[in-house]
Write a structure and sequence with these properties.
single chain, about 375 residues, alpha+beta, four-stranded mixed sheet, four-stranded antiparallel sheet, 14 helices, about 55% helix, about 15% strand, globular
């Protein structure tokens, strides 16, 4: 059936409605998932059922045809219930986008049973080696931070491999679940339920049709698809992957704050003005972050990102994350000792938001320098001419 449209295209409203449905059980299970450091199989199944795994799959393999703006809002919707579940939903979608860089035969293998294969990825390796072998490569190594790997069908891992003229090149390798084992190494302060454990590979042969160059993914020009969602450069969209769960978590924190303020009024106690001001500022920062992320998503839904859009989107996703962290920090501190209780969901949200914001893709300084580099380089060139 490869090459045929295996599933109907999903409308934005239908996907967002499905995301809300998945966010319910994710939220109910969030405290347990945080405590036990893993999502339940039912929550992961709900994310797949909602359409996250197929959102960015190529149309010829049954992809849902989801745009980035809708995906961003859907991820945030799940994040209002559980940031870790939103993180996994987001990565299910965006890792499938990576796989669009595989040759056609490799794509056909991954989506042979339909568009809902669960893909995970890792670029962080320890001593990984890839050497040429008959018809492909012989791969060995360990890869950390593979979010959702416990539920994976395939893993995409990166290793340096011999390239043209003897120069090593970064290359991705697609591995079926039978080709790797999992070491449980994820035990963190926040985002605990993402289960971002370690992938271990021992002398596995990967055929050439299940590999692609990392540069092909970074530029988007190597995608074996002519769909705009696959040909966008990585840094034009990558910040959305990780900022959207933070947006959802921040919205959840704001709802908890509103509930606490309202409860005071109902009980006949007027909330302190300082608490009201903190709430209002946090609400504004969250709204501002959402607007930045929406613009970033819409810009890559309309056209292929120019260099200017790429650096702006990277900046805006990082800046939005800073705003969201600021908002949640303020709400957490405004909650006083109550918010620090392990029974209070605000402390989990606070841990999750600050942990998620530490991801290297969301670091503002690097994004800021990339943003200014273009016009400063032009000024330098003009000065020297």
């Amino acid at each position: 059936m490869t090459g045929m449209l295996l599933a109907p295209r999903t409308t934005s409203d239908a996907f967002l409605s499905a995301a809300r449905a998945a966010g319910g059980p994710a939220g109910h299970d969030a405290a347990r998932a945080d405590r036990e450091r893993r999502l339940s199989a039912d929550v992961v199944a709900a994310l797949v059922e909602a359409g996250f795994s197929r959102a960015l799959v190529p149309a010829r393999h049954g992809g849902a045809g989801t745009d980035f703006a809708t995906l961003t809002e859907a991820v945030a919707t799940v994040g209002e219930g559980c940031a870790s579940a939103a993180w996994i939903g987001s990565l299910l979608a965006y890792t499938a986008r990576f796989a669009a860089c595989l040759p056609a035969e490799g794509q056909a293998e991954i989506w042979a049973d339909g568009p809902d294969s669960r893909l995970v990825s890792s670029l962080v390796s320890t001593g990984a080696t890839a050497v040429p072998a008959d018809g492909g490569w012989r791969l060995t190594g360990t890869w950390t931070y593979a979010s959702g790997v416990d539920f994976s069908d395939w893993a995409l891992v990166m290793a340096m491999a011999p390239g043209v003229e003897g120069q090593d090149q970064a290359r991705f390798f697609a591995l079926p679940r039978s080709a790797y084992r999992i070491e449980e190494t994820w035990d963190t302060v926040g985002m605990r339920a993402t289960g971002s454990h370690t992938v271990v590979v021992d002398e596995v042969t990967v055929p050439a049709h299940r590999t692609f160059l990392m540069d092909d993914m970074f530029t988007g020009q190597g995608a074996v698809s002519d769909e705009l969602r696959h040909t966008q450069p990585l840094f034009a969209v990558n910040g959305l992957t990780f900022a959207a769960p933070v947006l959802g978590a921040a919205r959840a924190a704001l709802k908890l704050s509103a509930g606490a303020l309202t409860d005071k009024v109902v009980r006949g106690t007027e909330p302190a003005e300082a608490l009201q001001i903190a709430h209002a500022r946090a609400a504004g920062e969250i709204d501002a972050a959402a607007l930045l992320l929406t613009r970033a998503a819409q810009s890559v839904d309309r056209a292929r990102a120019t260099d200017d859009v790429l650096v702006r989107n990277r900046r805006d996703c990082a800046l939005a994350t800073r705003l969201l962290v600021s908002a949640v920090d303020a709400l957490f501190h405004a909650g006083g000792t109550r918010s620090q209780s392990m029974s209070d969901p605000l402390q989990r949200i606070w841990r999750d938001v600050n942990s998620a914001a530490s991801h290297m893709v969301l670091q503002f300084d690097a994004a800021a320098l990339a943003f200014t580099r273009g016009f400063l380089d032009a000024a330098r060139a003009g000065k020297s001419s």
